[in-house]
Specification:
With 157 residues, this protein is of the alpha+beta class. It has four helices and nine strands.
């Protein structure tokens, strides 16, 4: 597993943790199921746990959330934006969740170059800082985000 690359999480993970508030898997586009969401792989510490930060194509929805947070708090630790394969995407530290190696599926490959897709270097530090903050917040007993991060984490370890 390479930190910074985009991966898909296996169906078995979504089945095992279906009551933990995870973003839906296998989004339908034009009547066909797609492996979604893809996630940015983040390593918080030296444990066997990896953290997945979902990437969404619902930029307008998350731009509104971002703007409201900026207006209210002058910052937004929940959402970031970048371009993936030429399209703007929302990166969602607010929805991060832990996984172990056995649940990490395929790497997201650029069909044009046959190379793994990674987040742009200029966005990595920002997203990593937001992810670390969310993980610490959850580990300190505060539930943040739509996923029950600590329930999943405790079951995985």
């Amino acid at each position: 597993m390479t930190e910074g690359q985009l991966y898909f999480v296996k169906d078995e993970f979504y089945k095992r943790f279906k009551d933990c508030g995870l973003l839906g898997n296998k989004e339908q586009i034009n009547g066909q199921k797609h492996n979604r969401p893809c996630c940015y792989l983040f390593k918080y510490d030296d444990s066997e746990i990896y953290w997945m930060v979902p990437i969404s194509s619902k930029v307008t929805k998350y731009r509104n959330i971002y703007n409201r947070s900026i207006e209210k708090y002058n910052k937004c630790d929940n959402v970031s934006f970048c371009y993936v394969l030429g399209e703007e995407k929302a990166i969602l530290p607010q929805n991060l969740f832990p996984v172990t190696k056995e649940y990490i599926g395929d790497v997201y490959i650029d069909k044009n170059t046959s190379k793994p897709i990674t987040l742009p270097k200029n966005i990595l530090a920002e997203v990593n800082a937001k992810a670390r903050k969310k993980i610490r917040y959850n580990m300190n007993g505060n539930k943040f985000g739509m996923s029950d991060v600590m329930k999943i984490y405790n079951e995985l370890i």
